[in-house]
Every structure is written in C-alpha cells, then in structure tokens.
Amino acid sequence: MAGLGKRLGCEAMGTAWLVFIGCGSSVLDTHRVLQGSGVLEMSLAFGLALVTASYAFGKVSGAHFNPAVTVGFAVANRFPVRDLLPYIAAQILGALLAAALLAHIASGRPGFELAASEFAANGFGAHSPADYPLQSVLVLEFVLSFAFVAACLLTVARKELAPLAPFICGCSLMLVYLISIPVTNGSANPARSTAQALFVGNWALDQLWLFWAAPLAAAIAAGLLVSFLKGPPEVSAQAQRADGQVDLA
Question: Which chain regions cross the lipid bilayer (predicted)?
Fold first, then answer.
C-alpha cells in the first residue's frame, strides 16, 4: 500500500480532475449556459472524468474522489476508518482547487456571474434547474447516491471485474447525472457540491446540507447492504502489511 501522503495527493488530484471536467463542461459552455441544454454532455464529462482518473490513480488511492464513496467503503469494512477524515479532506481540497480554476477562467467571459445556471451549483426549490422541491431532491439524491456507491462496492468486490471497474463506475456516474442534472444540477458527491457552493455563496451554502446528508446516508445504507451480502472481505497473505493492516488500494 502506498503511503498516506501519496494516496491523499492522488485523491485530491483525481477529485480536482472530476470537478474541473464535469462542472467545466457546463460552466465554460456558453451555449449550455444560455440555452439550458447540455445534460448529455455534462453527464458524459463526469463519467469519462471518473474513468480516466480511476485508471490513473486507482492503484494508489483506490480512486474514491467522493466522500460518499469513502464512507461507503469504510462502512463495508473495505477501507480503514482511520483514513476516513484525511481522504474526505483531500477530496474537498481537490474540488476547491478545481472550482477556483473554473471561476478564474470563467470570470474572463463578459457578463459572467457566479449563479446556479453558470457555475453548476446544486440546489432545490427555486434553485433547482426545473424547480423541484426539497422532498423530491432529497429522495432522488439518496436513491442515486445509494445506487452509485453500491455499484462501486459490488464491482470492486468481484476480482474478475477489476480491469473494468473504472469503466463500470464511470458509466454508473454518467447515468446518475443523466437523471439528476435536471433536478439538482447533479451531485451525489458532497465534495463537488461544497466546492461550487463556496464560490456561489448565499443560497448555495444554505442548501448545501442536503447534498451532504442525502449522499452520506445513502453511502452508509449501501455499505451496510454490501457488508451483509458479501460478508467480510477476503484477505490474501500478499495483501497483509507488516503491521497487520489490510492493503485496500
């Protein structure tokens, strides 16, 4: 297993890539901003960003790039709890760096403002792209986050799927965003939501709680389900470190 510092660096870089490519496909696309289109493009951008980052960094950090995924793996006993908070901190830092870069680039466009339609912030009610109320957004975020985290856990648990795991998880994320973009601008990732909300401020920060509560609750439920279905992870002799800890990378 790589050292914690290397793993945290990979998590930060992978999350930054995910947020920059995914949100950038909306923020920097003037046609999408003006016409309100681009759901397929944004979904594909997030999916491909996850695939490429996972293949690049997966062998080092496990390619979570999402606090909900990290929590789900920890609950399912497939990730050391002691590394939970450092991973989440690295993911948020990476997302913030990506959002800062996007804000800097987009600010060069005449008339740019840090508004929901232009900076891919997540929201409900009047700040939902299609005015979906809180209860609808809460249910959708929980269901889609649960499905995504469960898909990641179940895919990783099957050794024969290891070479395809990044592709499968990327496709799963693309499907999640295809459904959720018209409702919330697409989240299922608290780090991604936090970064955009901090730059938009005001209402985005007021509504940010939902985009932490729903994905994390869903991740806990998915982790418990996978732990029940699969039992404790199988550990080979080669996966044991000298200190007795399990190599989960």
Answer: 12-28, 34-57, 84-106, 137-157, 164-183, 209-229
